[in-house]
Amino acid sequence: MSKKTYSEINNINQSLISTLKNIPSEPGCYLMKDKEDRLLYIGKSKNLKSRVRSYFSSGEDLSPRISLMVRQINSIDFIVTDTESEALTLESNLIKSQQPYFNVLLKDDKKYPYVCITWSEEYPRIFITRRRRDRKRKDRYYGPFVDVNLLRKTLFTIKRLFPLRQRSIPLYKDRTCLNYSIGRCPGVCQKIISSEDYIKVLKRVEMIFQGRTTELERLLEEQMFKLSDSMQYEQASMVRDQITGISRLYESQKMIIPDSSICRDVIAMSSDSSICSIQIFQMRAGKLVGKLGYISPKYELDSPTILQKTIEEHYSNVEPVEIPPEILVQFSLPQQELICKWLTEIKKVTVKIKNPVRSKKAELIKLVEKNAVYELESIRIGNDKQKAALEDLCLILDLKDIPRRIEGFDISHIQGSDPVASQVVFIDGIPAKHHYRKYNIKSEQIQVGHSDDYLSMSEVISRRFRRWSRIKSQQGSLQPILDKKKSIFDPAMSKDWPDLVVIDGGKGQLSTVLNTLRDLNLEDDINIIALAKKREEIFVPGLKSPLETEKNQPGLFLLRRLRDESHRFAVTFHRKKRSLRMKRSQLSEIPGLGPKRIKLLLSHFRSIDAIQMASVKELCSTPGLGMNSAEIIWNYFHPSENQ
Q1: How far apart are CA 588 and CA 606, in angstroms?
Q2: Is residue 251 part of a domain?
Q3: What is the pTM (predicted TM-score) of this model?
Q4: 10 Å Cβ neighbour count for 404?
Q5: One domain for residues 472 and 526
Q6: Does 560 lie in the same domain as 604?
Q7: What's the CATH number where 544 sits?
Q8: Which of 62, 83, 98 is the last residue of a domain?
Q9: CATH of the domain at 283
Q10: How do residues 557-568 score in pLDDT, each as one tens digit?
Q11: Got the DSSP string for 143-169?
């Protein structure tokens, strides 16, 4: 890269140009700093030279957030490592200890959902999600939305106003379903509508979630008049219904600002010593069309800096058309001029950030701040309840430390049939569903008519902790790993270790599990209790009688929630397994159908009902199934028609 290219990108100094030329092509970490020597970003790469120089390449397609960061880079330090794996570990440790500005991303509240449109697919899907992981580059997320019930109703209404894809996978392989017949789906599964035409429909739906309802209504009105002029009255009436539906959709939540026709976002926050609640009100043509919320840890930052971080994070993840020409903020931003230039560059239209102290604009900010105060109080109450429950549980069980990760185990079966087990995980008193696990009980001693909950629980605990048993036998002790769990350098392996294990059952189940842990040489390493269902009694190792507790103790409530969740998860898995077995059992009665063909049929048609309704020709379309077998299956489900 030439000196001229660097200057064109960022007006960088000669010292930085020299650094970029002399970075080694080795694995390692790089540390980017601004003019005041503050850390902006820490990254790692297997080739430092290639990675760092890519930030300043004129042809590199940088995200809005990284583009903003590159503008502020004044110097770059680097640390060379022997391998990429070492670089990854070093990067993690440095970020945790240093917390660079652009590495510490704003945390959006877990309870807030997003709307996702999978633009990366030929026929995009639209759905509500609470996760933005594994995001493909073309897919877009809209939100977060504060009122999840209102969001569900909104999406429900939209799917009735516009003919959209209703299912993630087709119900039938070679024909449409009921949604197409009643006009709710344009026949995506059979590609009756082209991908280009379907995307045009979805682009209009996208405008609703971008707050561009006025613009959408105008486009639909123009289309309606054109259809009417060409005497396509039926299509014109459908567009008219869409316009009416969109108007009603936002009727209940519009707040009119009489003297304003400008599109703007109003941003304000409220905070305590540890957490911040940030609210964004989206005003479009004088109407409140959206209310978004974020939560951020304080990070020892002042309020204007947190507000600036919110703006950077939020507008880095929206389309340029969603950025309004005016943004009202509660405080003057530390780098307000820089942020304005950055947003203007993205939108291609001048964007102004204002901090009004008088007039109706200031009243708007006070209104948003009031909402942020209420939201912060709600968050604080929720956090305080969880903290109180964990502290109370610590007192009940006489634990040395508050149990951060609690695991619950339960068994489910019907008289020994389809035995399964569940493992649920609560972290800081909140269900962590991505850590849940299901177990199929493998013991041959457990059969239909012969159940053994003790043996099942022993098997599950053994499978859960046998890896840790091997580690202990190799290292002699688990203490070095458990000590790391309390440090900032928290390896992934130590996160898997529970602070408390809760067994669904009484003294018998607890005794069985203790014997299993003794065989694994982990009896002294794991805090384990049993919670009996009938009287909600807590049994602990070494005591014959249950612990004395009060009915309404917060810690006991937390254990009940954990136990009920593990029971729900186990029963759900058991029912699914039993249903699949019953389906296979029904098909196994058909002559000539073995396990392999049954699996192919269920994979192809998805349900027994679909197989029953299929014609001989449709049955033949199943891979590996011939005409004779198809006729046998059809005759089995239609005996009266075969007479």
Answers
A1: 16
A2: no
A3: 0.49
A4: 16
A5: yes
A6: no
A7: 3.30.420.340
A8: 98
A9: 3.30.420
A10: 999 999 999 999
A11: ---S-HHHHHHHHHHHHHHS-----SS
User: Strands 326-329 and 264-271, how do they pair?
Assistant: parallel
What one-letter code names the amino acid at 340? Answer: C
Looking at this protein, which amino acid is placed at residue 228?
S
CATH number at residue 621: 1.10.150.20
pLDDT along the chain (643 residues), means of 10: 44 74 86 85 88 76 78 85 73 72 56 78 85 69 69 77 78 79 83 89 82 75 82 80 68 48 85 85 74 76 87 82 89 90 88 87 88 83 82 88 91 82 89 86 76 88 90 79 54 72 90 92 90 85 86 88 91 82 67 76 74 80 80 76 51
- Strand-pairing partners, residue 103, are none
Residue 173 lies in a domain: no
User: Of 428, 444, 434, which Cα lies nearest the Cα of 562?
Assistant: 428
Q: Are residues 7 and 31 in the same domain?
A: yes
8 A C-beta contact, residue 384 and residue 272: no
SS3 of 104, please? coil
Q: How far apart are CA 476 and CA 549, in angstroms?
A: 37
Q: What is the DSSP string of 304-352?
A: HHHHHHHHHHHHHTS-GGGS-SEEEESS--TTHHHHHHHHHHHHSS--E
Query: Per the structure block, which two tokens stand in for 205?
Result: 């739906």
Say yes or no: 411 and 478 in one domain: yes
β-pair partners for 29: 44, 79
The residue type of 541 is P
Residue 92 located in a structural domain: yes
Statement to judge: residues 343 and 463 lie in one domain: no
Q: Where are the alpha helices (DSSP H) in 430-543?
A: 453-475, 479-485, 492-495, 507-519
| 417 and 544 share one domain | yes
Tokens of 80: 């060379």
Domain that holds residue 624: 589-642
Q: Which of 191, 151, 193, 156 is nearest to 170 (CA)?
A: 191
CA distances to 7, 33, 257 from 75, rounded to whole Å, are 14, 5, 47
The last residue of a domain, from among 55, 83, 98? 98
Q: Residue 16 corresponds to which tokens in the numbers above?
A: 């930085």
Q: Cis omega (within 30 of 0) on the bond before 325?
A: no
CATH number at residue 69: 3.40.1440.10
The packing angle between helices 213-229 and 233-251, to 10°, is 160
Q: Are 304 and 312 in contact (CB under 8 A)?
A: no
3-state secondary structure 468-487: HHHHHHHHCCCHHHHHHHCC
Write the pLDDT tens digit of every residue in 431-480.
888 789 999 988 878 766 677 888 989 999 999 999 888 888 887 777 77
Q: Same domain, yes or no, for 593 and 497?
A: no
CA distance 225 to 236: 7
Residue 160 within a domain? no
Distance from C-alpha of 435 to C-alpha of 566, rounded to nearest angstrom:
12
Q: CA 389 to CA 130: how far, in whole Å?
A: 25
HSE-CB at 62 with a 13 A cutoff on CA atoms is: 21
Q: Which structure tokens are listed for 472?
A: 């202990």
Provide the domain count of the chain. Answer: 4
E-strand spans in 515-601? Answer: 528-531, 538-539
Closest CA to 411 of 446, 380, 453, 448: 453
Q: Is the domain of 351 the same as that of 296?
A: yes
* Residue 280: count of CB within 10 angstroms of its CB: 22
Matching residue, tokens 């945790």: 96
